[in-house]
Amino acid sequence: MPTAAIIVAAGTSQRMGFDKLAAPLHGCPVLAHSVHAFCNAPSIDEIYVVCSESRFHELLAGPFSKPVKRVEGGATRQDSVYQGLSALSPEITMVAVHDGARPLIRPEEIDACLEHAKKYGASALGRKVTETLKRADHEGFARSSVDRALLWFMETPQCFRVNVLKRAYQHVRERLLQVTDEVSAVEAIGISTYLVESRSPNLKITVPADLTLASHLLGKNSTPE
């Protein structure tokens, strides 16, 4: 069952003030860590990186152990994912979508997520909410507790049968809907996603402090080969 990864890397890093995907992390750009992880996942056959031509050539010098192709991004994240889906080879039947700014993803987590997607049609990596949650009023005062028992923080990769995700994004585009991830897109066509609990740190680089934390966590593991 041929499988591809779409790594979304077309954002402008406005909250960071600099290109977070180019930030060095143990001698390797953030984006390259993400690409190497998918190269090292046995379940992945080819990789599509959605980004500008300059970013692709500057950050992904290679060589890579699997085919790595570039796809031009869109104006929004969902447009970029749609562009990636449109570029997939015809024989690809399963796809994993990943944020390029999650450099700590482990190959075994990728494989686990895809294994469940093959079984259920849709699967995503996530973390169970463990903190106490409060609902506040408009003045900022805590007013009630929120039951966290069935709540999850969503991560990536999010994995699907290609025909399912293409149908979801076509639906989203036709109805001018705005979605922040693929789970939301397939929800829009009535499909539920099986959640796979993330067992390893998989933070998204969003603010400068995340780079410090990611560097510390990577210090316990080997850097990409």
Provide a quick synopsis of the model.
By secondary structure, the protein is of the alpha/beta class. The protein has 7 helices and 11 strands. The model has no long low-confidence stretch (mean pLDDT 93).
Q: Could you characterize what this model shows?
A:
- This protein has 225 residues and is an alpha/beta fold.
- The protein has one domain: Spore Coat Polysaccharide Biosynthesis Protein SpsA, Chain A.
- Helix content is 32%, strand content 24%.
- The protein has 7 helices and 11 strands.
- Strands 5-4-1-6-10-7-11 form a 7-stranded mixed beta sheet, with helices on both faces. The chain has a two-stranded antiparallel sheet with strand order 2-3.
- Strand 4, helix 2 and strand 5 form a beta-alpha-beta unit.
Shape: globular
Beta-strand residue percentage: 15-25%
Which regions contain 5 or more consecutive residues with pLDDT less than 50? none
By CATH, the topology is: Spore Coat Polysaccharide Biosynthesis Protein SpsA, Chain A
CATH class type: Alpha Beta
Task: Tell me the helix content.
Answer: 25-40%
Give the biggest sheet.
7 strands, mixed
Number of domains: 1
State the order of secondary-structure elements, H for helix, E for strand.
EEEHEHEHEHEEEEHHEH
Mean pLDDT: 93
Cα Rg: 18 Å
**Oligomer classification:** single chain
Which structural class matches the secondary elements? alpha/beta
CATH architecture, by name, is Alpha-Beta Complex
Number of helices: 7
- Biggest sheet: strand arrangement: 5-4-1-6-10-7-11
Q: Tell me the CATH superfamily.
A: Spore Coat Polysaccharide Biosynthesis Protein SpsA, Chain A
Give me the count of strands.
11
Task: Give the end-to-end Cα distance, rounded to a whole number of Å.
Answer: 26 Å
